[in-house]
Design goal:
This protein has about 190 residues and is mainly alpha-helical. The chain has 7 helices and 2 strands. Helix 6 packs antiparallel against helix 7.
Length: about 190
């Protein structure tokens, strides 16, 4: 499941698993014709494709440093860091490749569960950010949110955070084992 490699010297993202280029969506991204730029008149350097790969990695990949950001923030950071223009972002072939990568990522039940858990944590955070301790029931005048209940919910966040971290670690380990297995082999006793 590890498709991209980040080069921390150049800041570029490249494809680790060439199988990704076998998909029609990704093969379209590397076509020389759509990669022509004033600096690369032939498109052989595929600079546009590598900017697109960088966005896809930063926005969609579970190993992205922005993976835990809310979706809109993750998009903005990935767009800025990749250097994609609005026109390039709106490209039909690029959008198809993004959908394909999302589909591939979501095919892993582990990642799907992790994303769902993170989404639930985001909703809990939103709830806690919007609790108004001064809000009163219009009929009875009693507080809507009891202080002791809110405090108990905040204390429960400690368990929620540690559980989420454990889940992330477990998913990462599972995917690393998966990516080390090649072909039709099965996981052995010592794998």
């Amino acid at each position: 499941m590890k498709f991209f490699i980040y080069d921390n010297v150049s800041g570029d993202v490249s494809i680790e698993d060439g199988g990704l280029l076998l998909t029609k969506e990704f093969s379209k991204l590397v076509e020389p014709e759509r990669n022509k730029t004033p600096k690369d008149k032939t498109g052989k350097n595929r600079t546009r494709a590598f900017r697109e790969f960088k966005y896809i990695y930063l926005f969609l990949d579970w190993e992205s440093p922005y993976f835990q950001y809310p979706e809109q923030d993750r998009h903005q950071e990935a767009l800025k860091d990749s250097g994609l223009t609005d026109t390039e972002f709106d490209d039909v072939f690029f959008r198809e490749a993004c959908r394909k990568y999302q589909e591939i990522q979501d095919s892993s039940k582990d990642i799907k569960i992790l994303k769902s858990a993170m989404s639930a944590v985001d909703r809990v955070a939103y709830y806690l950010e919007n609790v108004d301790m001064q809000e009163r029931d219009p009929v009875t005048g009693k507080p809507i949110f009891k202080t002791k209940d809110v405090i108990a919910e905040i204390k429960g966040c400690k368990d929620l955070i540690s559980t989420l971290r454990e889940l992330q670690t477990q998913v990462k380990r599972g995917l690393e084992v998966e990516s080390n297995i090649r072909g039709n082999t099965e996981i052995g006793l010592f794998d």
